[in-house]
Structure formats: structure tokens, C-alpha cells
Write a structure and sequence with these properties.
Blueprint lengths: L1 H24 E3 H26 L6 H13 L12 E3 L14 E3 H11 L8 E8 L3 E2 L3 E11 L13 E12 L2 E11 L14 E3 L14 H46 L3 H9 L1
Parallel strand pairs: 1-9, 2-8
Antiparallel strand pairs: 2-3, 4-6, 5-6, 6-7, 7-8
Helix pairs in contact: 3-4, 5-6
Length: 279
């Protein structure tokens, strides 16, 4: 009886250890897709909206300061990991790479953007080609989000126009209230050629439990591995098709609103034309 108790205790400890290691070294495919989607949204919606709000002429100084503080230290609308997050400066239009830029903390970056970037009543910051890497594991889980950035308004000091910049944001992934939450931990310039083989530190993805593979023997390991790879390939292709469909829908919606603006403008209905163009 004692031997049996020790056996079951050892079995339980082994199971708990396996669960812990699995949780640290792998995540499900579903979790990976959720993390990538949230990370992309953090950049192409929340970071972009933050900069556009700061650059809006209708926002008062006190409100701007509050928005900046909340972005890195608030309990709501926080998108940066901490006030110590570093960004490579792209506010100066002459900065286009890590070699010519400088690291500044997020508070200074946003305050400089507020002071040095020309403001307008319409959104002027746009991010395109937003693409998240695979989920990676270092000391914590993280994702790299690549995007092109364009500032439409001018630079106050020299009235210099901006051009496109290639940017990459490192996103720290935290588990909060049983949900994956992304935070920006750094933003840099990047060379598009450097991302082609970005598979370093990719975390293992676990497929959903399949009873058919529950009793796979060692001689079947090659077949099981092939099934795993095939499953992951199908999941990636499905995600790719969904992203293409979503992009097509967003492009169609954008063009529909733009056409309405053009039609209103052709009819000298400037009020409606301005409304549609702002949308």
C-alpha cells in the first residue's frame, strides 16, 4: 500500500511538472493566433490613434498630458509596458535608420511629438503593412510587429516633409485575468531584408488534443510529426486567407466612403464631402 501511494504521488508530481514545462515552452495554436491579432491591433489601431490624438488641434494641452501619461502608466488605455520603454526617434524627418537615430524614453518621445510635429484637425499618422511575427519566447513571451509609418503633416522646426519609415515594435505578452494582453516594450527602425528568416526563438505550438493520436507508438512518431506539421500548415494558410479577406473588406469599405465623398464634392455638397473624407 505504501509503495502504491508513493507511486501515485510520483505520478502526480511528474504530471504537474510536465504541465508546468508545457505551459512555459509551448502554447496552443489558438492562443498564438489571438496573441498575433492583438499585437497587430495594438499597433495599427491603438498606437496610431494615440499619435493622431496628440496631433489633433482640438485636444487641449491638459488632455494631451493625460493621454500621454495613461499610455504608459495608467490603468486604462495603457499600451506601453512602462515609462522606461525606449523608442528610436523618427520625429526628426532626417532619421530613417538605427544608425542615424537615438533612443529616447516613451514620455519624451510623445512630448517631443506633441511639440515638434505639426497638428491638424484630421488624422495625419498612418501605419500600413502591419505584420506580426510568430510568437517567441525569451525571458517572457513576445512578438515583433513590422509596419511602415508615415507622418502626413510637416516638421515644425524646418517645415520638412516626412517620408515612409520601416518600423518594428517588440510586444511583451502578459497573461492578465486569464487573457493575453500585449504591451509595447520597444520600437525601432528595421531593414526589410532582415525579417525574411525571422524564426529565432519561435515558441512551440501545440495542436488541439486528437484522440486518434493518443496511442501513437514510437514507430508512428514520424507520422505523428508529419500530421502535426500538416495541421500547422493548414492553420497558417487559413489565417492567411482570413487576413486577405479582411483586407479586401476594409479596402472596399474605404473606397465606398471615398466615392461618397467624391460624389458629394462633385455636387458641391461640401459639408457631406468633408464628413465622408474625415471618415
Amino acid at each position: 500500500m505504501i509503495y502504491r501511494d508513493h507511486y501515485f504521488l510520483l505520478l502526480l508530481l511528474s504530471f504537474l511538472f510536465f504541465q508546468k514545462v508545457t505551459a512555459q515552452d509551448s502554447i496552443s495554436i489558438k492562443d498564438a493566433e489571438e496573441i498575433r491579432y492583438k499585437s497587430e491591433s495594438l499597433i495599427k489601431r491603438e498606437l496610431k490613434d494615440l499619435l493622431n490624438n496628440i496631433a489633433n488641434t482640438d485636444i487641449e494641452l491638459a488632455e494631451t498630458k493625460k493621454i500621454i501619461y495613461n499610455s504608459h502608466s495608467g490603468t486604462r488605455n495603457k499600451i506601453f509596458l512602462s515609462p522606461r520603454v525606449l523608442l528610436e526617434d523618427d520625429i526628426n524627418p532626417s532619421f530613417h535608420s538605427s544608425n542615424s537615430s537615438r533612443d529616447i524614453e516613451v514620455e519624451k518621445y510623445l512630448n517631443d511629438f506633441d511639440l515638434l510635429y505639426k497638428k491638424s484637425d484630421a488624422p495625419s499618422v498612418s501605419f500600413n503593412d502591419v505584420k506580426a511575427s510568430n510568437v517567441k519566447k525569451g525571458k517572457t513571451l513576445y512578438v515583433k510587429v513590422y509596419f511602415t509609418s508615415f507622418f502626413r503633416n510637416g516638421y515644425k522646426i524646418s517645415d520638412t516633409a516626412y517620408t515612409l519609415n520601416n518600423r518594428v515594435a517588440e510586444i511583451r505578452i502578459e497573461k492578465e485575468h486569464n487573457k493575453w494582453t500585449p504591451y509595447i516594450s520597444r520600437v525601432d527602425f528595421f531593414n526589410p531584408a532582415d525579417t525574411a528568416n525571422d524564426v529565432l526563438n519561435d515558441i512551440i505550438l501545440m495542436r488541439p488534443y486528437n484522440p486518434a493520436l493518443a496511442n501513437v507508438t514510437p514507430t508512428d512518431s514520424a507520422s505523428a510529426a508529419f500530421a502535426q506539421i500538416s495541421f500547422e500548415t493548414m492553420q497558417k494558410e487559413k489565417a492567411r486567407r482570413e487576413a486577405i479577406d479582411k483586407d479586401r473588406q476594409e479596402t472596399k469599405s474605404f473606397n465606398d466612403i471615398l466615392n461618397k465623398g467624391d460624389e458629394a464634392l462633385d455636387g458641391n455638397n461640401f459639408t457631406d464631402a468633408l464628413k465622408f473624407y474625415k471618415e
